[in-house]
Design goal:
By secondary structure, the chain is α+β, with helices and mostly antiparallel strands. The protein has helices at about 1-35, 50-55, 150-155, 165-185, 260-270, 280-285, and strands at about 75, 80-85, 90-100, 135-140, 160-165, 190-200, 200-205, 210, 215-225, 235-245.
Length: about 290
Amino acid sequence: MNRNRLIFAAAVAAIVIVFIIILGVVMLRYVSRRVTEGVPPSGTVTKTPAAKLNAALGDPSGATSDASNKNNFLVVKPQYVLSYNNDKGEPNWVSWHLQASDIGDVERQNNFHPDDALPAGFKHVTPEDYTGTGFDRGHVCNSKDRTANEDDNSETFSMANMLPQTPDLNRHVWEQLESYSRTLAQAGNQLFIVAGGYGSAKTIGKKNKVNVPTDCWKIILVLPQNKDISQADKNARVIAVDMPNTSGIANDPWQKYITTVADIEQKTGYHFFTDLPADVQAALKSKKDSGK
């Protein structure tokens, strides 16, 4: 009798072990497929080193990889992380990390293209939706910040990384800050950047309607290259700007539009620096940079 019970118990244990192994294999394949498709498991931003750096300042809007969350859909790429707004046909925000090694001599790919990382049923904005509108296809994560190789540069030309910007903003005052950021990186700093737009001036587009923001904002946390994001303290440099998306500002210096992170939070409803300690967050959000 005891022998039969032992045999029965061993058989049950074997079945349980086989079930656990099968379940583990299924879950591993699921997670692997999600990562391969560029979609992280629910509740995470990413596990890859590059994307961890790109998203080091947190998730300002609480974006998720749930395809039903169309207006706050998380897209994770090696080059940047963004929240896509399907109704607006543009990113809510784009976040990326910049250091000297990201800046190379690769030529501008100029291959504007719909983003195939967006699920079926989403608005896939095309380059032609901007054609003849008077607005530039304004990179959020800009092309020159990703010139180490052709693949990185090409990915910045995704239409999910674009905001309609006036030429005076995109080619002049906004570009001034982009160039200044690269000089900081090449001087031995690393930059944690998040940027986007807010408001609605009008819509453009042919096949797909795209919102034209009234303002474009950017936040930059500057740290020495050898300092980890967890070491950011109240003395870290923060540059925050809020620029009007209008004509007539081409000759303005970018410093004219310096503001505070707290001001951008109030205008966007987002929450920045969420992965930093609360006291550090509060100090950095109230800072207003000198622009020097």
